[in-house]
Amino acid sequence: MATGKKVEEQTLVYRGKKEWKANDDKKYSCLVFSLLDYEEKNKEKELLRFYVTDDARHMPVRIDFYLKFGTAKAYLAKNNS
């Protein structure tokens, strides 16, 4: 995968399907994927995991970021307009 400065060895892994209840109080059938990086040969590290709807739109409903200092999460938000 090209990250802007160089090409790095990373892998996108399909983790299966999961039903997810988002912050808009709706349940979504999601496809789950992980992005893996290899710090050392044969040693993988999960960088992020994301959930996209299992329909034609593939709308992202959740993203988990695994950072050096902890984790961050992003969720689909309820539209109040």
Walk me through this protein's architecture:
It is a single chain. The chain has 81 residues and is an all-beta fold. It has no helices and 5 strands. It has a 5-stranded antiparallel β-sheet, with no helix packed on it. The radius of gyration is 15 Å and the shape is elongated. The relative contact order is 0.22.
Give a short summary of the structure.
The chain has 81 residues and is mainly β.
Itemize the secondary structure elements and their pairings:
Layout: E1 10-21, E2 27-40, E3 43-53, E4 60-67, E5 70-75
Antiparallel strand pairs: 1-2, 2-3, 3-4, 4-5
Strand content: over 45%
Average pLDDT: 87
Can you list the strand order of the major beta sheet? 1-2-3-4-5
Q: What Rg, in angstroms, do the CA atoms define?
A: 15 Å
Separation, N- and C-terminal Cα atoms: 38 Å
